[in-house]
Design goal:
Blueprint (H helix, E strand, L loop, with lengths): L6 H13 L8 H30 L2 H5 L1 E7 L2 E6 L2 H12 L2 H8 L7 E6 L3 E3 L5 E3 L2
Parallel strand pairs: 2-3
Antiparallel strand pairs: 1-2, 4-5
Helix pairs in contact: 2-5
Length: 133
């Protein structure tokens, strides 16, 4: 068994290490850019297509009382701020709203729509809705 006290062995290991080609380190900006392109940009583009079809298909009243929160694992999560509008939107979802969106945007993968009661805004003193994000 040889130990690291052998000078010739240490020199040999050092020479081998110097010969190895090192890849340049990625900068944080490059890592963030790659992450954005691979993960976020695709999701954003898909949500943008769904959102544009959503606004074309839904009446203005329902658009004002609902908000697309996100798309996760093939389920579009939508917040609805009142029970009355929840019931109306639920009826549209059951009648095939997701299929209509897919017909408008043929490049999209199939998804389901799940409705949740909730608010994405707060109301100021003048009664205006202000988004919480």
């Amino acid at each position: 068994m040889q130990y690291w006290t052998d000078d010739k062995l240490l020199q040999k290991v050092n020479q081998m290490r110097k010969r190895q080609k090192r890849r340049p380190a990625k900068t944080l900006g490059k890592v963030a850019d790659d992450f954005f392109k691979k993960r976020i940009a695709k999701r954003h583009k898909r949500l943008q297509k769904i959102s544009s079809a959503w606004s074309e298909l839904l009446p203005q009243e329902l658009q004002e009382h609902s908000c697309i929160e996100g798309l996760n694992r093939g389920t579009l999560k939508v917040l609805v701020d009142s029970q009355v509008h929840f019931a109306e939107l639920d009826m549209l979802v059951r009648s095939g709203l997701a299929d209509q969106i897919l017909d408008m945007e043929p490049g999209l993968q199939a998804f389901s729509i799940k409705l949740f009661r909730g608010k994405w805004y707060h109301v100021d003193e003048e009664g205006n809705k202000i988004a919480d994000w």
